[in-house]
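Onboarding guide, step 5: your first structure request.
Type a short instruction followed by the sequence, for example:

Predict the 3D structure of this protein.
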Amino acid sequence: MDTELDADDMKDLVVRFKAFYKEEKGEDFPSDPKVQLMEAVKAVFRSWDNPRANVYRRMNEIPYSWGTAVNVQSMVFGNSGDTSGTGVAFTRDPSTGEKKLYGEYLFNAQGEDVVAGIRTPEPIAHLAFLVEKLNRLLSKDIVIYRIVPVRPDAHARFDATSRTYKYYITTRKDPFNYEFVYKIPGKLDFEAMNKACPILFDYMDFTSFSKLHTDVKTNNCRIYKAGWEKEGDVWVFTVQADRFLRNMVRAIVGTLLEVGRGKLSIDGFRQVIEAQDRGRAGTSAPGHALYLFDVTYPEELFLLTVES
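The system replies with structure tokens like these:
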């Protein structure tokens, strides 16, 4: 099996292939990378007209005039061990013609290994099996729950339709959660803080809660949800919006804390937003208690649902 070859075996194969090439071509294998690349490109175009390709086109009624193409890209070594791999994918099922993602992959393999028939590739629909394998490699503070193929033009940031953040606060000292929540001395009026939250829905320009001198075209955001809920001894602020400005959630929390301490009225909270002045808002709450909780995307972005 190709996966059983070590570095010395590979070096021996290179020597054998070069000798075979010289015997067949009557010249040394080219050492210039540009020459190698151009020969590889020519080989693809020549393959369009070989007997096997002609028979395949006739069987599948593919016009000869369609021609073929070559895509040149940086080399990715899929055979660097069990943490790498390669595969082939199509936008239709070649057996039925159904318009869906279809593909196969192999661990520790190069592109030719997938189509050569030496090893049996795995269907791309089985990507869920990757979850456990990848989680073994990741650090303890990172976990993958599922893997889902998406459209080639999908963008993790710009295609998101909403984001949800949570901020955790406690007024009680706890040695087991001090790294994850913001401990505040004294009492807070969470009822007043919750009364201030709906005011956020009335506005779109949140300049007052944005870090200064950021490289954004607009400070407009649409907030869909905001409020405080108690979970045990911890108060959780949940906020959902179509987008967030830099430092925005921490600034909102810091300003709501001013309401909770009685230093800022509910109407004063509204005035802070209308002022569009970061200097009018409260001090940003510490970052260690803020968490990105959820990101939503349009359904049409996903090509396949893979259950973990």
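Each response can be followed by summary notes, for example: Helices lie at 7-25, 33-47, 51-60, 111-116, 129-137, 190-196, 248-260, 266-275.
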